[in-house]
Amino acid sequence: MELCSFLTLDSFITDPLTHDFMRKALLMSSLVAAVCGFLSSYLTLKGWALMGDAVSHSVMPGVVVAYALGLPFSLGAFIFGVGSVALIGFIKQKSRVKEDTVIGLVFTGFFALGIVLVSKIKSNIDLHSILFGSPLGISLSDVKQTIFISLLVVILLSIFRKDLMLYCFDPRHAKTVGINVFFLHYLLLTCLSLAAVVGLQSVGIILVVAMLITPGATAYLLTDKFDNMTLISVLSAIISSLIGIYVSFWFDLETGGSIVLAQTFIFLFAFLFAPRYGIFKLKKLFAGYK
Amino acid sequence: METINYQNFRIDAENICVDYNGKVALYDANLRLKPGQICGLVGMNGAGKTTFFNALTGFVNISKGKIRINGESVRSAQKDQTIAYVPQNEGIDSQFPISVWDVVMMGRYGSMNIFRCPRESDVQAVKDAIERVDLTDHLSTPIGNLSGGQRKRTFLARAIAQRASILLLDEPFSGVDIRTEKLISELFIQFKNEGKTILLSTHDMIHVREFCDLVLLINKTVVAYGETSEVFTPENITTTFGGISPDFLFGPES
Question: Which chain A residue lies closest to B56 (C-alpha atoms)?
Answer without folding.
Answer: A176
